[in-house]
Amino acid sequence: MRFIKxxxxxxxxxxxxxxxxxxxxxxELARRISDRHTGVGADGLIVIHPSRVADVxxxxxxxxxxxxxxxxxxIRCVAKYAVERGLAKxxxxxxxxxSGVKMCECRIEHGRVQSVRVDMGxxxxxxxxxxxxxxxxxxxxxxxxxRGVTYETTCVSMGNPHAVVFTEQLHRVDLVxxxxxxxxxxEFPQRINVHFVRVDSRTHVTIRTWERGSGVTRACGTGACxxxxxxxxxGRTGRCVAAELPGGELVLExxxxxxxxxxxxxxxxxxxxxxxx
Length: 277
Known about the structure:
By secondary structure, the protein is of the alpha+beta class. The protein is 16% helix and 43% strand. The chain has an 18-stranded mixed β-sheet that branches.
């Protein structure tokens, strides 16, 4: 099976052309191929299919085999793949996801996609869209208690669920310890991604991420969008911010005119290969 390894800010996935390859059990393949010791090594698997409503369709699986509805860093790489492999003319690429069709605007230099601006759609603060059992109109700076520690938590859906915790002591966060507590908290029956955020200014934030099904990752595109929204609704940031993640920087804007969140960042091809199984 032919595959391509790509990443957005170090949030890496294995990509497979679903029109050319037959995958009997993509969840099991995701678990095996994502293993960083015995597989290719990745945060998950993305299969690129033909689409009846867009240029291409992305089917995403986390490293543990669980199905993901959307991936902000992954969709930029899907757009890059579509343009460079002739599946879309570009610079605009429409990508069908489990969270709807997303428009991607590619910046192309010498025939190669360097970065992609993605219309991530409208965020939702409705608890039912996460979902969460927390009873509130919106979960904004909600005092969530986990093992005796209270975290002021803001929840945002970007097609997938995110919890955002602002802290001035970002360097002290035990992400490996607290990440699973959020992911598997009973308040989030379908699990959740969690992001710890330091606000550096009204236009700059620093983020560390635990993703459900993948653990600590170097970047999360939908999570960065959720952080942008959370910063606005809590009054901590403006509508346009640069987000510094371990893998690099994303630019986010929650536009006032159409209520959509726009994300801009790089897409990088690492290598191609053949999976022998």
